[in-house]
What does this fold into?
Amino acid sequence: MRLSITRPPPGQHRSRSSIKSPINFLCRECGRCCTAFYINVTDADISRIAGETGRRPEDFVDLCPRGSIIDRDEDCDLKMRDGTYRIILAETRGRCIFQLPDRRCAIYVSRPLPCRLFPFDLREGGVVVNEDARGVCGGLSSKGRPVDEGMILSLECQWSQEVNQFAGRIREWNGLFDQGKVDGTRKALLSYLFAAP
Ligand code: SF4
Ligand code: SF4
It folds into this structure.
């Protein structure tokens, strides 16, 4: 079992006026966040990566059994014919398939929102360190630069909106599955999510 990076609980998105004390951060490019967590992705994340790289979603996403993922967010649980799954970035040998040998990200410009937001989170409307990042991320130190909290808040809001939209599509898929209108295979899911109308 492994953690995934989750969006803040509902009700955490408020105005910038409630920003808390500054956090200093400088990414060390160690790549630990690319191996320590499953990376949940939405259809919006997947479409951005496909558009940027020219790769097909089936080449870089995978389905992770729900029981293997520690995650407080259940809105995107997918009903498939052999169980419940989450859609994540594919991995090779326990690391994200987009991590380069030198540990940098091959899709840095279009990396998914959980990656953009790590190691931050929201609490009571302010930016805080994601509790799951402690002990993983070495970029959080007084030697770093103050984070752009407005940018983090903006990305968190975008992420929450995109997860909500994706959750709506998942609910629709799960409903179709319950009615026997989709066969619950990976191919059918990707076709449902990404086939041209
Ligand atoms: S997409 Fe990039 S930043 Fe995100 S886990 Fe993969 S390699 Fe790391
Ligand atoms: S774990 Fe922290 S320091 Fe290391 S690559 Fe990820 S964000 Fe940067």
User: Anything to note?
Assistant: The radius of gyration is 17 Å. The mean pLDDT is 87. The helical segments are 33-36, 43-53, 57-60, 113-117, 149-178, 186-194. The longest helix spans residues 149-178.
